[in-house]
């Protein structure tokens, strides 16, 4: 039974880019990957197996785009944190309600046991009266 070789991150990115180029351009080649114009792809800088150094500072448009992506990410994190906080509050409330219900059930069980005990006492007293001849 042969073990399947796990690709390195570099190989996995390369394979992904080759498959994407084949799907998009119907060609599977190094040249197609190197000439890829899909700039929105997060793997685009890594497509050739190395991260290319920038040839200069970011343009104003690139800076604005990065700032906007960062702000969007922060908004998503804040949204997720708020949802988590609401879910935790809801769970705490539900636990509290459930505990009150459990407590009420325990009280009802105790009341039921007390009523059963009183019924047994009354039955025993009645049976004792029957045996003592009070009802003849």
Question: How would you describe what is shown here?
Answer:
With 136 residues, this protein is an all-alpha fold. It has a domain at 7-53. 70% of the residues lie in helices and 0% in strands. The protein has helices at 9-25, 30-34, 60-132. The longest helix is centred in the last third of the chain and has 73 residues, at 60-132. The mean pLDDT is 83.
Judged by helices, strands and strand pairing, the structural class is mainly alpha
H-E string? HHH
Low-pLDDT stretches are none
Helix content: 55-70%
What is the number of E strands? Answer: 0
Largest sheet, in brief, is: none
Q: What is the beta-strand fraction?
A: under 5%
Radius of gyration: 37 Å
Q: Given the C-alpha coordinates, what overall shape results?
A: elongated
Architecture blueprint of SSEs:
Blueprint: H1 9-25, H2 30-34, H3 60-132
List keywords for this structure.
single chain; 136 residues; mainly alpha
Question: Summed up, what is this model?
Answer:
This protein has 136 residues and is an all-alpha fold. Helix content is 70%, strand content 0%.
């Amino acid at each position: 039974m042969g073990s399947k070789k796990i690709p390195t991150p570099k190989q996995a990115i390369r394979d992904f880019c080759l498959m994407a180029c084949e799907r998009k351009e119907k060609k599977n080649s190094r040249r197609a990957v190197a000439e890829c114009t899909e700039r929105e792809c997060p793997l685009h800088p890594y497509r050739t197996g190395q991260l290319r150094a920038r040839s200069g500072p970011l343009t104003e448009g690139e800076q604005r785009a990065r700032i906007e992506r960062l702000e969007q990410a922060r908004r998503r994190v804040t949204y997720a944190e708020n949802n988590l906080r609401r879910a935790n509050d809801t769970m705490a409330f539900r636990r509290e309600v459930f505990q009150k219900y459990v407590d009420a059930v325990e009280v009802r069980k105790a009341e039921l046991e007390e009523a059963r005990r009183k019924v047994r006492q009354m039955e025993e007293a009645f049976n004792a009266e029957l045996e003592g001849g009070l009802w003849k």
